[in-house]
Amino acid sequence: MNKNPIHIIGGGLAGSEAAWQAAEAGVPVVLHEMRPVRGTDAHKTDGLAELVCSNSFRSDDAETNAVGLLHAEMRLAGSLIMSAGDANQVPAGGALAVDRDGFSEAVTRKIEAHPLITIRREEVPGLPRADWDQAIVATGPLTAAGLAQSIADVTGADALAFFDAIAPIVHFDTIDMDICWFQSRYDKVGPGGTGKDYINCPMDKEQYLAFVQALVDGQKTEFKQWEGTPYFDGCLPIEIMAERGVETLRHGPMKPMGLTNAHNPGVKAYAVVQLRQDNALGTLYNMVGFQTKLKHAEQVRVFRTIPGLETAEFARLGGLHRNTYINSPTLLDASLQLKSRPGLRFAGQITGCEGYVESAAIGLLAGRFAAAERLGHAPLVPPLTTAFGALLNHITGGHIVSDDEPGKRSFQPMNVNFGLFPPVEAPKAEGKRLRGKDKTVAKRRAVTSRALADCREWLGLPSRAEAAE
Ligand SMILES: Cc1cc2nc3c(=O)[nH]c(=O)nc-3n(C[C@H](O)[C@H](O)[C@H](O)COP(=O)(O)OP(=O)(O)OC[C@H]3O[C@@H](n4cnc5c(N)ncnc54)[C@H](O)[C@@H]3O)c2cc1C
């Protein structure tokens, strides 16, 4: 076996988990963390895996919640982040919330004590050196400037975002297609398109005027002091466009031109909200041009006034924050490796996942993939039916790259959610079709039990039935 260590840059959620997984597989690791030598705008301590904002890992319900399922899969895979989280839990209803200091101390202690891990407190100023033949960049949304610039240089200058406005994403099966219709503007058949690539939601004049007013009046999130950077790609939040004049949106993302309401062809819509397919499975649609800094509850309230979205469920809500992430679907292969430099992997939020748990999960995968290669095996990618596989697939290929909004990047960071999984048939109860909430819950249960069985198989663990014998 090649005895060279795997070099991991960044001792956050992803880097700590990657280091643990590789070392537990028997491979030496050097973990480079720049704090306390150099800080970030959000971190306050020199602890590994510091939680920079909330102390919640969100829902711990592995049966009907996608992030709860990810927790369960990570526990099966021997996750350090999950064991430290479980050991430092504080009461939070159905959520897993942790004592942030106890959690970070537990991760730091475990990493420091591991005989195969060396921690170097230093900033890595550029891309990993050429003699680091296996390396993982896990430097997060606040990657230090020197390394961020080197990454931009190798991946293409437009491939790294610094300030993001993101638009909401809706679960397709919650859109009312008796009101909305499929059509591309002027029925244009773009590359790979059919002329019916968008879902259109029609508004009359009264609905439009009320909607613009609701955007102007809606509560916005406040900017933090580190959010002084200009808008990415001139991608203005929708409420700022609304403030510029009542007609601005009707001449921008809500223009009705080239669209005919399939349910009511004789009546021209005054304005139209368009949604575009977001993943190859066709289970998620993003609201085109609807990047926003409205508070999350306000987004749900205001966007549900859009005809056809009255009962919409959101896989992700819009937001505005500083972020550093690469255009992973173009740049990375299925095992998170930079296509242009084999042996160099990315992990954590910099790959385009969102959230503590997702970042740690991608770190877990990157650590396993790098260790497998070091041990002479091909990395074994988790099946798409697992939360690991669904999230990985979003990052490395499941997202559809759109080229109809020049200058804008369509790949956006995302939390794990059920829209990323291949659909299942809704189970029946006593031969009868389920409806409404019962149907949703039954489908989620079917997805999560399939996921956990497939995850066990991927990890080489006995099935639950075998384990119980
Ligand atoms: C302000 C803010 C608030 C957030 N709030 C939440 C929240 O409430 N809930 C949630 O789930 N997610 C939140 N996130 C997202 C959260 O940061 C990420 O989900 C998670 O921390 C990312 O994990 P990571 O390991 O990719 O990055 P991080 O945890 O940020 O770890 C990256 C590490 O790399 C180090 N580093 C950077 N550059 C270098 C370098 N050149 N050399 C050596 N070390 C380097 C950093 O010091 C850091 O320790 C927030 C993000 C930000 C920026």
TrEMBL record:
Record's keyword annotation contains Signal: no
Cofactor(s) it depends on: FAD
Domain spans labelled MnmG N-terminal: 6-375
GO BP, one annotated term: tRNA wobble uridine modification
Any Pfam family hit: GIDA
Localisation per UniProt entry: Cytoplasm
Keyword NAD in annotation: yes
Keywords: Cytoplasm, FAD, Flavoprotein, Methyltransferase, NAD, NADP, Transferase, tRNA processing
Predominant subcellular localization, coarse grouping: cytoplasm
Residues binding FAD, per UniProt: G10, G11, G12, L13, A14, G15
Catalytic activity, reaction form: uridine(54) in tRNA + (6R)-5,10-methylene-5,6,7,8-tetrahydrofolate + NADPH + H(+) = 5-methyluridine(54) in tRNA + (6S)-5,6,7,8-tetrahydrofolate + NADP(+); uridine(54) in tRNA + (6R)-5,10-methylene-5,6,7,8-tetrahydrofolate + NADH + H(+) = 5-methyluridine(54) in tRNA + (6S)-5,6,7,8-tetrahydrofolate + NAD(+)
EC number of the protein: 2.1.1.74
EC category: transferase
GO molecular function, one term: flavin adenine dinucleotide binding
GO CC terms, sorted: cytosol
Function: Catalyzes the folate-dependent formation of 5-methyl-uridine at position 54 (M-5-U54) in all tRNAs. NAD-binding protein involved in the addition of a carboxymethylaminomethyl (cmnm) group at the wobble position (U34) of certain tRNAs, forming tRNA-cmnm(5)s(2)U34.
Family, similarity comment: Belongs to the MnmG family. TrmFO subfamily.
Name of the protein described by the UniProt record: Methylenetetrahydrofolate--tRNA-(uracil-5-)-methyltransferase TrmFO
Organism name: Mesorhizobium tianshanense
